[in-house]
Every structure is written in C-alpha cells, then in structure tokens.
Amino acid sequence: MDEQLWFTAILNHAFAKPVNAIMQALPPVFHPENPNAPINNTTAMEILVVCGLIILFLLIRSRLSVEKPGGVQHTAEMLDEFITNQSDGIIGHHSEKFTPFLASLFVFVFISNLIGLIPTLESPTAVWGTTLGCAVVAFIYYNAQGIREHGLKYFKQFIGPVWWLFPLMLPIEIVSHLARVMSLTIRLRANIFAGDMVTLTFFTLIPILVPVIFLGLHVFVSFLQAYIFTLLTTIYLGLAVSHEH
Hints:
Blueprint: H1 6-24, H2 41-62, H3 71-90, H4 99-114, H5 128-150, H6 166-205, H7 210-241
Helix pairs in contact: 2-4, 3-4, 4-7, 5-6, 5-7, 6-7
C-alpha cells in the first residue's frame, strides 16, 4: 500500500469505520487491504477536488452580480459560453442543455490534472481508475442521451443500414463504442502520468529555475487534455443525438 497523503490520513481517521463497513458488505474483491485505511490516495484526491469545486461553485453563486461581476464570475461565464458555443457547433441547436455536464466534466478533469503540482498532493487522473471512471461516465451519458432522443430506435445504429448486415455490423459497432472508452482512458492517464514524472524528475535533478518551464508545460498539457476529453465527449454526444446519424 502506498504511503498515505496527509488528506488521505485525515479521511481515514474520520471515516475508516463506516467506509470499511460498507466495503465489507460488498463482494470480496472490494474488501480493503487495510481495514484501518480503506480510503486510498486516489479516492481522497477525487474527494478533495469535488469538495473544492462545490465550494467554488457556491462562492460564485453567492456573488453573482449583473452590475459588478467579479473575476471568478467572468471566468465561469467564459467557460459556460465556450462550452455552449462548441456544443452548438458540433451538436447543433438546443445543445445548451448539455452544457452543465460538459462544463462539469471539463473542470473536474482540469483541476484533477493540476492538483498534482501542489506539494504533498497527487493527480488522481494519473491513475487508471479515475480516467476509466470519467470515460465510463461519459459513455453512459452520451448513450443515455441518445436513447432519450431516439428511444429504442437508437439501437438501430448497431445493426447497420440493412438488416442482413446485422451479424457483421453488431460486433463492429460494439467494439467501436468500447474503443471510445479505452481511447479516453489511455490518452488522459498516459499524458498526466508522464507530465507528473517529468516535472518530478526535473525538480529532483535541477530544483532551481528549469522546473518552472516544465510546470508551465504541465499546466498547458493539463488544460489540453481536459479540453480534448471534453471535445471527444461532445463529438460522441453529437453522434448519439443526431437524427441524421
């Protein structure tokens, strides 16, 4: 078991008993290795990111102003407008209903990518479980929206344009959709893990000046990967709800 981060230790000290009780009620594969510390570092970092975002959103909500918007409000409005415009260009009209999910996905991934730059913390997106979880959530969401838009006709895409191609098209379409989950998972995890390792290496070898360059590069990569993850999810969502598709 990896050494606990300070925030992980706090969570385990406060919630180890109830969390362990819940996990013990699940199948053996979910049982914690250490009952005294059932919460691992990755889960703790995800909780920290979510709690931080909730506090941030509540702060923005409490200070909304039409006459004198603050800097944080301006940033939130820019993100909302950017996601909405991108969705409109990819999905089409009435795509604004998807903005809350897409914006939340982008912010969660972006902050999760960046949090590893803070000493004594780690990026949860540098771990397979987190990136797979985000990919599965995106997968479930766009398929659910497709079913909501088309009903059971949504599944006609899996059998191809003509019924007699069904034996060939069904496995191809299933593999294609599952490959999207794999693509989202591997791309995000590999880039953030590599970025963390490069930054840590240069901080260890040359702790002055040079690592600043790689910190800036890591921030750029964190933003880029969050954007790509959100963009691909938007494209998949557009394909799912498109009537032409």
